[in-house]
Structures are given as C-alpha cells and as structure tokens.
Amino acid sequence: MTTPDELASVRYIVDDVAAAVHFYTTHLGFTLHTNPAPAFADVVRGPLRLLLSGPASSGARATPDDATAPGRNRIHLIVDDLDTEIDQLRAAGLSFRSDVIAGPGGRQILLTDPAGNLIELFEPAPR
C-alpha cells in the first residue's frame, strides 16, 4: 500500500491518450508526469496522479467488456472562482454536462474530458 505522502492515483480509460493529455494540461492545470505514449500517459495536479490509459494499455484491457461507458464517479477539483473557470473553459470551446448546482457546501459544475470521463469543478461556500 502507498504511504500517505505519495501521490493518490486515479485511472481514467480514454480513447485518445494525446487528446486527454492536451485536455488536462491545457485546461485544468495538470502537468505531464511521464512522456506520453500511444497506450498510456499520466498527469499530475497537486497530490493527484491521473493515469490516462488508452485502448492498448494493460489498464484498459483489464476492464470488463460491459463497462464501456463512464460511470458516475468523477475527479473533484477545487477552484477559487467557479464563474471565472467556467468562462475560461467556455472561451476555450469546452462544454459542460450540467448547469451550476448550488448547495450548502458550495457550487459545482460537471464537464467531460475528450473520452467522456466526468470532472467536477467545485467552489466551496464561504466560511
């Protein structure tokens, strides 16, 4: 098991590794951790290491055939100003999978990466 000071990793199955790397590094502040290969790359933001596994990767091949659509799971990225983030991402040509939802803990919106995996942008409520 990893130690508490190591990166936490999440695997996303993608159909185009290069497009996924571009999306996460250009629009969401991730940095490339390994050189992208046709089958796999990983990107990092803070303590999160996002494993981007293409169709030829061992991670994608281990996925059952009936699990082809993204689930309801998503990575959760905290932002300081949700409205500014939305404006910047829309200006870059990205679209969202939900409207802004407000609750007692803050406001959030969902977008998808090029493969359809969900990303939640979350602005905590003022304390």
UniProtKB/TrEMBL annotation:
Domain VOC positions: 6-124
Keywords from UniProt, A to Z, are: Metal-binding
Determine if Metal-binding is one of this entry's keywords.
yes
A Pfam family it matches: Glyoxalase
Family matches, as InterPro entries: Glyas_Bleomycin-R_OHBP_Dase, Glyas_Fos-R_dOase_dom, MMCE/EMCE_epimerase, VOC_core
Tell me which domain of life the UniProt entry assigns to the organism this sequence originates from: Bacteria
Per the record's keyword annotation, is Metal-binding included, yes or no? yes
Q: Which Gene3D superfamilies does the protein's record reference?
A: 2,3-Dihydroxybiphenyl 1,2-Dioxygenase, domain 1
PANTHER family named in the record: METHYLMALONYL-COA EPIMERASE (PTHR43048), RING-CLEAVING DIOXYGENASE-RELATED (PTHR43048:SF4)
Q: In its UniProt entry, what is this protein called? A: VOC family protein
